[in-house]
Write a structure and sequence with these properties.
The complex is a heterotrimer of chains A (about 160), B (about 100) and C (about 400). Chain A has about 160 residues and is mainly alpha-helical. Chain A contains six helices and no strands. Chain A has helices at about 5-20, 25-45, 50-75, 90-105, 125-130, 135-155. In chain A, α1 packs antiparallel against α2 (about 25-45) and α2 runs antiparallel to α3. With about 100 residues, chain B is mainly alpha-helical. Chain B has three helices and no strands. Chain C has about 400 residues and is mainly α. Chain C has a two-stranded antiparallel ribbon with strand order 1-2. Classes of the chains: A mainly alpha (about 160), B mainly alpha (about 100), C mainly alpha (about 400). Chains in contact: A-B, A-C. The interface of A and C includes residues 26 and 60 of A.
Amino acid sequence: MPASFYILALFTIMSAFCAMSLRNLVHCALCLALAFLGIAGLFLYLNAGFVAFAQILVYVGAVAILIVFAILLTRNAEKNEAKATSSLFFSIPLTVAIAAILLNAGFSTSLRSSATAATAPSVRELGTLLMTSYVVPLEIIGVLLTVALLGAIVLALPERPEAT
Amino acid sequence: MSPLQAYLGVSAILFAIGFGGVVTRRNAIVVLMGIELMLNAANLNFIAFWKFGITNNAAGYVFVLFSIAIAAAESAVGLALVILIYRHYKTTNIDETTRLHG
Amino acid sequence: MIVFQQIDQVFVTAKHYAVELAPIEWQSIISVLLSIIPILAVFPLLFAITTILERKGLGRIQNRYGPNRVGPYGALQPVADGLKTLFKESVQPRAAEKVLFFLAPVILVIPALLAYSVIPYGRNMVPLEMDAALLFFFAVGAGTELAVFMAGWASRNKYSLLGAMRAIAQMLSYEIPLILSAVPVVMLSGTLSPTGIVAAQDNYTATIAHWNLFKPWGFAGFILFLIAASAESNRSPFDLPEGESEIIAGYYIEYSGFKFALFFLGEYLGLFAICGLGITLFLGGYTAPFSFLNWIPSWLWFFGKLFALICFFIWVRGTMPRVRMDQLMNFAWKFMLPMALINILAAAAWRFVPMPGFRWIVSALIVVSGYLLLGQGLTHKAHYIKRTYKFAT
């Protein structure tokens, strides 16, 4: 593995850690956007170009900004917040345990990997796949996105005062 | 360390950090950010297995596209709910949204 | 004929020659540098020319001279502007967040420059040839919005933050019609790569080129693209976030000196990149409109079209009044989004209607009826009275 992979992986992990541990919420959100960029870089390392650009377009371009807007719209609460974290007594051992389980599974010797790396499907092949083998999930995701959009709009609409 | 193990290691650490954020922090928005991190770690896992795994089809690749779309929809609905909670409780601290507590 | 083809490819052959001169280990780096450095040299120069052109053009539209003191007809004004900006003091408010304040202009310029790498400037002259290059272009456009938010937030200024939120809302709302108006082009060219899209427009029937502009869905798509592009670059009539008469500079109020120049540069570079993409998608990229004009070099056609689009944007800026925020959002969500979807339907009709003459009529009918119905829906509550001019006789 080239050294640049380790630098990118370290950058992603550090931004993720900062995103979860900083006190100022806007800094957390911006570090999260950096972590998304790092993950997109890791996707590019694996020659998954389409997924990397989709990740940047959706996560950095939409989800991060949505989080920032939500932070800006709920700002009065954070001024009188005493503690940012619940008790760390239970959460840190739990986190370490989960990391240990996943790392154990990842580094186990019974994990088979093939010698030849897969080639990324070209855009034309991806389009054919999406329209033939995976057309049902595609349509369901269309319906799901529409429903989620409508639901989010209805939930966040300002309430009209009851007419008395 | 084979490339597959390196990517699985990064994905495991990212998942653990996201989980730590969800369990530790009190602000609802930071909890949602942790969930997004966990989803991203799972996506990285999928792509690593697509690239270096033994089955040679593009299912992992296509699944990640769908997963990105679903995560975006879920974060939209989740943040709308957080804004709604803020309107009623005047706080985003999830330790204080306990009105349905037994 | 051969001479014209050689002039067409003169930059490509020069670059190959220069790369061959380098030692073997350095050849890939030298090749990349030779692709990047002309872009970094040409487009800031184009930015300088555009600033003076805009000021003089706006001045003439508003019945006054533009700047005409500095050089012959004011041509050296950009030099004076650049020197002034470099010598100005870069004031940073004491309460501003230092790191974000410093990084915001940098993060604004970087996606604008990255977007230049996938536009074909001439035959065989695209710096980076990728399969999913159009997706890359829109993805790096998303980085601009984060930079705008960082600039507005780091200034610790209520009006800055307000301007930043307005700017992000506007950019997000108009990003969807921008991408949707590019979808019919991708559908009918069969590829996401700009070289493929230009190659699909490279045919001529009866000496008229197959540009996407000359097709009904392409015409509507081009107009939608231009409107969305001027909204994405915060240009008039969509420059409410930086409305000079309202919230002075919106999200970059607190910036002065070189950082302000970087914001200005980033905005114009983004405009050029989106114009370049519009030219690639709808105006046939580097191809000539008529086949008997094919001898003019392709890069000259590209920059000529870019110049024409820039003049068009300056003209629109001088002519139309600023749009209000709620009018802007209404227009994006209630008119442009359905219109873009109807455009996709028209493009599908173009593809699948069998008789060649009939498909023009069907496609044009779908576009025009969509426009009329949506326009009726938007304006049926507006009552316009006859205009009376008090001061112009």
